[in-house]
UniProtKB/TrEMBL annotation:
UniProt keyword Phosphoprotein present: yes
Record Pfam families: Aldedh
InterPro entries: Ald_DH/histidinol_DH, Ald_DH_C, Ald_DH_CS_CYS, Ald_DH_CS_GLU, Ald_DH_N, Aldehyde_DH_dom, Aldehyde_DH_NAD(P)
Organism of origin: Poecilia formosa (Amazon molly)
GO molecular function terms listed in the Swiss-Prot or TrEMBL record: 3-chloroallyl aldehyde dehydrogenase activity; farnesal dehydrogenase (NAD+) activity
Location in or out of the cell: Endoplasmic reticulum membrane; Microsome membrane
Keywords: Endoplasmic reticulum, Fatty acid metabolism, Lipid metabolism, Membrane, Microsome, NAD, Oxidoreductase, Phosphoprotein, Transmembrane, Transmembrane helix
Aldehyde dehydrogenase domain mapped to chain residues: 5-423
Main location class: endoplasmic reticulum
GO CC term, one of those recorded: endoplasmic reticulum membrane
Bilayer topology term: Single-pass membrane protein
Reactions mediated catalytically: heptanal + NAD(+) + H2O = heptanoate + NADH + 2 H(+); octadecanal + NAD(+) + H2O = octadecanoate + NADH + 2 H(+); 2,6,10,14-tetramethylpentadecanal + NAD(+) + H2O = 2,6,10,14-tetramethylpentadecanoate + NADH + 2 H(+); tetradecanal + NAD(+) + H2O = tetradecanoate + NADH + 2 H(+)
Entry protein name: Aldehyde dehydrogenase
Family to which the UniProt record says this protein belongs: Belongs to the aldehyde dehydrogenase family.
């Protein structure tokens, strides 16, 4: 058995013991994970410093703070999330217990990416633990030092059989993908996303794909350009542009382009000093392959700021490109580096048209003081997430689903969305072995009269206001009367009924003109009734 097979087999066996299921056990694991972030803060930030030159404070701000928040939330809400969720019933199931029971899926494979190696690998793990699953964790090999720390530390804090860490690159990941999982949660680029989905299809395993793409950023003339550019500069150059939701490029009116460039340059200086290379808050490109790829994107455009780099140090200066053409190299792929192209457009209409010509992005940003501009941008485009007048921060809101649409991914997570995504939401209906008469309408022999009743029971909906509750009471009386009536017909020799004032219920099924469905009209003529059982 390969190392990967062994880890999968052990995790599966551990899941089958049932120990990941009790809420108390899940909470213990989550608390242990929380302890890891408190006690091993230094190990974590030292490794990330080596991988991406993130500062200690930057690591906490962008990686572990969010994880601690997600763990706290899961611990606080777990009982509520895992509880049966009552749902609305139809008339037919009025006396039944109908609810959704979240249950663990089983064994989850989590494949992480390198750019925020803790955030994007551990955040799904929090969801997997909270939902009662086992999980094999595969950190990105590209983040060499962090992968090692994760492999060393996780088993010291959480159940190492239920949640094993498997390190390695393409070969190891593909070996994992040959195994059977109950869910695969992948974060990374779309090309590999297709490989993941193909492998998952072999076992009919459902997937979440957290991918990327080119996230547009439109700056309206009607806005505070200085503030807009400060926020965009932060969103773009954080982690040296290696952020899945970084604003990829700016669209703006040509008349504000110079001002935008000046303000971005000013913010770069404010954030990263005159010399970003020596600034502890300015990151590095992950490796020389990506360094070369990013530098090659600049070639055919005009540099307005930065543009220089040092391959030996994987440093690329915060760069702005002006008057960029849609067919420029930098516009052909997700940049994932500190290059900010500006494409002049004639206004909102052209911006929307341009965005809609591309793939659906992971995030879409608009800066404007005009609510109509913001609404039009939201309503006339599609993207994983939508932000007006800021960048990135939606990632930190646990009550928002985070994920892509179309080419930027499928599925979503964070907070309760992680719990739901990694649970099976099992529909449950618990009926009593009583009131068999009600079921006659669905049993053979099928007759138009029974169908009439079935239409009524299946299609009647109620809006439970005050009037709705009154109606519900009346309907319950109808159901009770119907049950008794059916029973009476069935057992007429045993049961004789005497109904005062002649007539109980009649059902009129009439086809309404201009309406495809027939409507059921109930007439209750007499509510006063007596049933006498004769033995
Ligand atoms: N949506 C999100 O939350 C999110 C977060 C981070 C990054 N991203 C996106 O991820 C991309 C950057 O990450 P990346 O793809 O360079 O990360 P990566 O190179 O770390 O790859 C991601 C994972 O896929 C595995 N992998 C790589 N090639 C493989 C193959 N051929 N077969 C099987 N597994 C393979 C790696 O081992 C790794 O664990 C960007 O597009 C970015 O936008 C998205
Ligand atoms: C305070 C804002 C936090 C933003 C963190 C962004 C993480 C993005 C993960 C994808 O690359």
């Amino acid at each position: 058995m390969s190392r990967e097979q062994q880890a999968v087999a052990r995790a599966r066996k551990a899941f089958e013991t049932g120990r990941s299921r009790p809420l108390e056990y899940r909470i213990i694991q989550l608390k242990n994970l929380q302890r890891l972030f408190i006690e091993r803060e230094k190990d974590i930030s030292d490794a990330i410093k080596k991988d991406l030159n993130k500062s200690e404070v930057g690591t906490q701000l962008f990686e572990t703070l969010g994880l601690e928040g997600e763990i706290n939330l899961a611990i606080r809400k777990l009982k509520e999330w895992a509880a049966p969720r009552p749902v609305e019933k139809n008339l037919l199931t009025l006396s039944d217990t109908v609810y959704i029971q979240p249950e663990p899926l089983g064994l989850v494979l989590i494949i992480g990416a390198w750019n925020y190696p803790w955030a994007v690998t551990i955040q799904p793990l929090i969801g997997a633990i909270a939902a009662g699953n086992a999980a094999v964790v595969k950190p990105s090999e590209v983040c060499v030092h962090t992968a090692k720390v994760m492999e060393d530390l996780l088993p010291l804090y959480i159940d190492k059989e239920l949640y094993p860490v498997v390190t390695g690159g393409v070969a190891e990941t593909q070996e994992l993908l040959r195994q059977r999982f109950d869910y695969i949660f992948y974060t990374g680029n779309g090309t590999v996303g297709k490989v993941i989905m193909e492998a998952a299809a072999k076992h009919l395993t459902p997937v979440t794909l957290e991918l990327g793409g080119k996230s547009p950023c439109y700056i309206d003339k009607n806005c505070d350009i200085s503030i807009a550019c400060r926020r965009i500069t932060w969103g773009k150059y954080t982690n040296c542009g290696q952020t899945c939701i970084a604003p990829d490029y700016i669209l703006c009116d040509p008349s504000i382009q110079d001002r935008v460039i000046e303000e971005v340059k000013k913010s770069i200086k404010d954030f990263y000093t005159e010399n970003p290379k020596t600034c502890p808050d300015y990151g590095r490109i992950i490796n020389q392959r990506h360094f070369k790829r990013i530098m090659a994107l600049v070639g055919d455009s005009t540099v307005a700021a930065g543009g220089d780099g040092d391959e030996s140090d994987c440093f690329i200066a915060p760069t702005v490109l002006r008057d960029v053409k849609p067919d420029a190299k930098v516009m052909q792929e997700e940049i994932f580096g500190p290059i900010l192209p500006i494409l002049p457009v004639s206004g909102l209409d052209e911006a929307i048209k341009f965005i809609n010509k591309g793939e659906k992005p992971l995030a879409l940003y608009v800066f404007s003081a005009d609510e109509k501009v913001i609404s039009r941008m939201r309503d006339e485009t599609s993207s994983g997430g939508f932000l007006a007048n800021d960048c990135l921060v939606h990632f930190s809101v646990s009550s928002l689903p985070f994920g892509g649409v179309g080419n930027s991914g499928m599925g979503c997570y964070h907070g309760k969305f992680s719990f739901d995504q990694l649970s099976h939401l099992r529909g449950c209906l618990i009926k009593k072995l009583k009131m068999e008469g009600v079921n006659n309408m669905r049993y053979p022999p099928h007759t138009p009269k029974k169908l009439g009743w079935a239409r009524f029971f299946f299609l009647t909906t109620f809006d439970l206001g005050w009037a709705g509750r009154m109606l519900l009471l009346a309907l319950m009386a109808v159901v009770a009367a119907f049950v008794l009536q059916v029973r009476e017909t069935q057992d007429s020799d045993r049961l004789r009924s005497r109904v005062k004032n002649s007539y109980l219920i009649s059902v009129d099924q009439t086809q309404q003109p201009g309406c495809r469905n027939s409507s059921v009209v109930i007439k209750i003529k007499v509510l006063h009734m007596h049933f006498i059982y004769l033995h």
